[in-house]
Amino acid sequence: MKGIVFTEFLELVESKWGADMVDDLIESNDLESGGIYTAVGTYDFSEMQKLLGTLSEKTGIPASTLLETYGNYFSGHMTSNYIQFFEKAPNCFAFLSSIHDYIHVEVKKLYPDAELPHFASNMIDDNTLELIYTSSRKMGHFAKGLIHSSIEYYKEDIELEMNPLDDSGSKVRFLLTKNG
Amino acid sequence: MDKTDLISKLERRLAREKGARKQAEKILEVKALELFHVNEGLEEEVNRRTIELRQSEIKYRSIIENMQLGLLEVDTEERIVRAYPLFCSITGYSEELLLGKHAGKFLSFDDEYLEAAIKENNKRLEGEASVWEIRIRHADGHPIHMLVSGAPIMNVDGGVEGSIGIHYDISYQKALQEELEVALEKAEASQRAEKEFLTNMSHEIRTPLNVIIGMTELLRDTELNTDQQEYLGTLSRSADMLLDLISDILDISKIDAGVLQISEANFDLTHIMNSLARMFEVKLEERPISMKYEFNYNLNNYLIGDAKLLNQVLVNLLGNACKFTESGEVALDIHILNQREEDIEIRFSVSDTGIGISPEEQAEIFKQFRQANRGINRKYGGSGLGLAISSRIIKALGSELLLKSIKGEGSTFYFDLKYRVSEERVSGSKGQVKVISPVRPPKDPILVVEDNVLNQKYLLTILKKWKLPYDIAENGQVAIDKLKENRYSLCLMDIQMPILDGYKATQWIRKSSDQKNLIVIALSASTLGADIEKAGKMGFNDFLSKPFRPEDLNQVLVKYLGRGNDTPDLFLDQSTLDDLYQGDEDYKKDIFQLFIDLVPRDLNKISLSIQDRKKEELGLIAHRLKPNFHMVGLLEGERMMKNLETLAKQDGLWEDIIAIKSRLDELIEKAWPQIEEILHIK
């Protein structure tokens, strides 16, 4: 997993729960990286799981909620550094549909070793978009947060529904319905 | 919080950040190196591609320059930006001279081409390529005829930045084209001349032949002694042979000159076949050969095509079959290959059980003037043209004359023809018996317009014989003069005459004379198809084709002047009767009664002897009957009896005997009432 995911996560933690919490999370776990993350680096996904798990314990907030919050937070990084992808799409549905075929393809060009989820999009009708998220990292809630922020960015009146397609959480269905 | 704790926390954080920074730097360095290598690779690639491109450009440029194509490049204003060496050498200008000049204005030979050049340039600006011709002005001033292939030069944005033209010198081809056109005209003129020659030759030859044949016919009807009859027979046969030979030669000339005209008219196939079959049946009468014809042909409609040519071929084939068969059978067959409502395909075949033709000979016989082997001419005669003509005619009709034969067993000649079927059904059979019927004498004379003295004599002799009034004009101009002075009932108009020909005279009649509706019959020596149509269009009511027999003329005159009453001619010669009976009416009646009682029986006997082909018997009966006719004053009948007797004794042709017998029967039928009347007179 790319370092950016770790660095942003720790910044979120710091801003919400303070530098001490960051320190605690790192110290509480036996991390191969030693807690040293740079955005351009690559680290093992299990470290993320550990940090998240510990945070959930310490805050009492379920991991899924934390991930959703993180997703929301992460989109800020997106809009700051990769605004061209948003500007290229005329509306929310177009943007979300372009993630798999275009955005992720560009990402892979720059970072061939990036692990990205599979995002299949399907327009059921003019007002309804279905996204199928598939990933062994099972970060569906993170995705939900990101999707939610996108809707907010485009300022559209869209309802978001999330349904797991299997028990493990590695396959999730998002249904977006436009109102009006 | 504990100070130590805080310091520891801060130290750890610092360490982590330092570590992160170092990591980042390392990663950056690696990436920088990667980039450096990629750059190097790219530079190499670019160099390589540039070299390749340059080589490619050199290659194509040299190809273009080495090809025999004059290339010229212009900008959007049509100003020359580049002239390739070959273009310069063809046009005689140097590149320096051409650069900057307006291509259309500077190079066009004349305004016509300048306009074309401007139009073409506009096409280029629209992005359109095209091929066109132009005359370019050489530096010397003379024109060069060029074929230009022009195309626009497009830039990357799809806009036109100029155009390029490949100029190819086609002066040679143009000159060739013109020469061909001249040659074609000459060839056509030549063919026209040949056609005219054939027309004239046809006329020149047929004119005297016409007279010979006609005179022969007239002679036949006169009183002839045995020697004379024999000579007449030979004369007639020779004339016929000559006519056939000349017709054949003219036909071959026609076909070879390409002026054979195939006409399309309604004809009755059954009638043609039957006529042919009967004609040859008669020819084969005294020979041990049977004529077989069975037509499984039920179509009652006319067919559309050229009956004359079909007839000609079949006559030739049947003639050959008869000629080359000693005994056995000659068969004429038609076999339907394919029949639909609108057309029909028929196989015509002529078979015989004759001498046959070997495979080597088969190749020879279709050639002109060739017969199967040298001996043929000695034994069978013939010109050797017949099959050559027939096969050419069939070819002209779109088919092929084929042959199956086994030497010593017989031959079959056959060909397939397709005809369109007319919607008209054949009207009741027309009796084709050629008989001389009396013509109703018209009120106004018949005008004969004919320049040839012999032909004049021929016509006038006939008209005199039929007791019809006539007048003569020796050419069209004389005819017109006479028409201005007198009224005529009908005009027999020769076509080819000096001073004013038949066409023009007839035109005058239809336009300017006050006898606009005068019946004009064309006497035409030409049988070239077009002339028959032309005759109709020229205002002729009908035509007679020379040479024509008295019956043909008779048919036409009866058609237009009407049939005369069966002339209440006295068949019985009064002076003879007066001499014989000298007033003794009883004696006369007795003799006449005897005639009525006995002669019919004897006439029957004559018919039987003809049927049985018994010449001696025939001769005896004729000899015996002869005086009987004299005794009733039927001198014509007496003459006919004498002819029959002579023919029988001198081994004349059955054809001739039968003809006389039938005329005799007619005569007796007409004269009978007069004979009977004698018995009723008090």
Structural features, described:
The complex is a heterodimer of chains A (180) and B (682). Chain A is of the alpha+beta class. Helices cover 56% and strands 17% of the residues of chain A. Chain A has helices at residues 3-28, 45-59, 63-81, 83-88, 92-110, 140-154; strands at 118-125, 128-134, 158-164, 171-178. Chain A has a 4-stranded antiparallel sheet with strand order 1-2-4-3, covered by helices on one side. In chain A, β1 and β2 (128-134) form a beta hairpin. In chain A, α3 (63-81) crosses α6 (140-154). Chain B has 22 helices and 17 strands. Chain B is elongated. Chain A binds chain B through residues 19-20, 22-23, 26-27, 34-41, and chain B through 1, 9, 12-13, 15-16, 19-21, 23-24, 27-28.
What topology does this entry show?
The complex is a heterodimer of chains A (180) and B (682).
Chain A: H1 3-28, H2 45-59, H3 63-81, H4 83-88, H5 92-110, E1 118-125, E2 128-134, H6 140-154, E3 158-164, E4 171-178
Chain B: H1 3-66, E1 70-74, E2 80-83, H2 85-91, H3 95-98, H4 103-107, H5 111-125, E3 130-137, E4 143-154, E5 160-169, H6 171-220, H7 226-257, E6 265-267, H8 269-283, E7 289-293, E8 301-305, H9 307-323, E9 328-339, E10 343-352, H10 359-365, H11 374-380, H12 386-396, E11 402-406, E12 410-425, E13 446-449, H13 453-465, E14 470-473, H14 476-485, E15 490-494, H15 502-512, E16 519-524, H16 529-537, E17 542-545, H17 550-561, H18 574-581, H19 585-611, H20 615-631, H21 635-649, H22 654-680
Helix pairs in contact in B: 6-7, 6-13, 7-12, 8-9, 9-12, 14-15, 19-20, 19-22, 20-21, 21-22
